């Protein structure tokens, strides 16, 4: 049976949750891909799947944060790739070109107040509750927005790093991104531009002319190049981190993918490993994913609305 998703969400909303489960604020909706119906059978399947799991391994991606107002790259029609010709910063270009770094930071600086203010939504909060209840063994996210840690999630690997931290490429020191914002402000007191939109990595759109006047600080200790502690495209994920996540996966008895199309191999590899170890997989994502053939089933719906109504026992 198929029926419209909204009435279902309204009739099943769990009272007493910390966040509103069914309402997506105006303006934020524009980043969430269309999903008008949900397969009720698939929802029941997911409920049963999660109830059976005792050590759940969760993989999350950009689709989990769209309901917090952060656009993703790949969603049909609303993702950044569909709406603009902008592409994310490449690692090699960042390292090679001071101009590219200047452009990157100028945009990042403008986007930071908005990007850093995003709050976890009902999906992040539901997963955190499941962790508290002992259902979730480990969570690995491809997101760099810190929303899982803002929700209080403990057993967490940020596979692609976190935009709230800054790494010195010279001495390896890690510092809060917020501190760098203050240094930017001090170095560029009269610099200003109108930001036109924020990408998943905190990037925004600014005229080239304005970028030329933006001053970028280097590491206070060694003068080295600063970089967000985020895996850029073309960069590789730390091997020890990958090994660590593989170990957590091997301790798990079920895998839930939430809000990721798994197009990037760094996340997809854990689904391959799960299949090899015969760990059952369920996928919750609007649109198809690279791992559909590895999953027992897939639910195509908004993460926040589904996760906040499911009660895994
Ligand atoms: Zn340094």
UniProtKB/TrEMBL annotation:
Its main location: mitochondrion. Residues 36-313 form the Deacetylase sirtuin-type domain. NAD-dependent protein deacylase. Catalyzes the NAD-dependent hydrolysis of acyl groups from lysine residues. Keywords: Metal-binding, Mitochondrion, NAD, Transferase, Zinc. The gene is SIRT4. It comes from Salmo trutta. Its EC number is 2.3.1.-. This is NAD-dependent protein deacylase. InterPro entries: DHS-like_NAD/FAD-binding_dom (IPR029035), NAD-dep_sirtuin_deacylases (IPR050134), Sirtuin (IPR003000), Sirtuin_cat_small_dom_sf (IPR026591), Sirtuin_class_II (IPR026587), Ssirtuin_cat_dom (IPR026590). Coiled coil: none annotated. Its cofactor is Zn(2+). One of its GO terms (cellular component) is mitochondrial matrix.
């Amino acid at each position: 049976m198929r029926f419209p998703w909204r009435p279902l969400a309204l009739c099943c909303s769990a009272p007493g949750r910390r966040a509103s489960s069914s309402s997506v604020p105006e303006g934020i909706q524009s980043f969430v891909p269309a999903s008008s119906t949900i397969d009720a059978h698939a929802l029941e399947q997911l409920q049963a799947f999660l109830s059976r799991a005792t050590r759940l391994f969760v993989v999350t991606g950009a689709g989990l944060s769209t309901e917090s107002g952060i656009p993703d790259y790949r969603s049909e029609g609303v993702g950044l790739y569909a709406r603009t010709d902008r592409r994310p910063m490449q690692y090699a270009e960042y390292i090679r070109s001071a101009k590219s770094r200047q452009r990157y930071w100028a945009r990042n600086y403008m986007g930071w107040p908005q990007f850093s203010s995003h709050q976890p939504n009902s999906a992040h909060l539901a997963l955190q509750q499941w962790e508290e209840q002992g259902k979730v063994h480990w969570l690995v996210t491809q997101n760099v927005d810190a929303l899982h840690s803002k929700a209080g999630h403990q057993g967490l690997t940020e596979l692609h790093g976190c935009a709230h931290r800054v790494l010195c490429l010279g001495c390896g020191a890690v510092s809060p991104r917020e501190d760098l914002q203050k240094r930017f402000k001090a170095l560029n007191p009269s610099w200003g531009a109108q930001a036109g939109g924020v990408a998943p990595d905190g990037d925004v759109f600014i005229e080239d002319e304005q970028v030329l006047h933006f001053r970028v600080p280097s590491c206070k200790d060694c003068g080295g190049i600063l970089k967000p502690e985020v895996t850029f495209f073309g960069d590789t994920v730390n091997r020890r981190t990958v090994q660590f996540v593989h170990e957590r996966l091997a301790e798990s008895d079920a895998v839930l993918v939430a809000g990721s199309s798994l197009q990037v191999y760094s996340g997809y590899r854990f689904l391959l490993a799960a299949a090899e170890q015969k760990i059952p997989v369920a996928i919750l994502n609007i649109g198809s994913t690279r791992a559909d053939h590895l999953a027992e089933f897939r639910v195509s719906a908004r993460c926040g609305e589904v996760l906040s109504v499911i009660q895994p026992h």
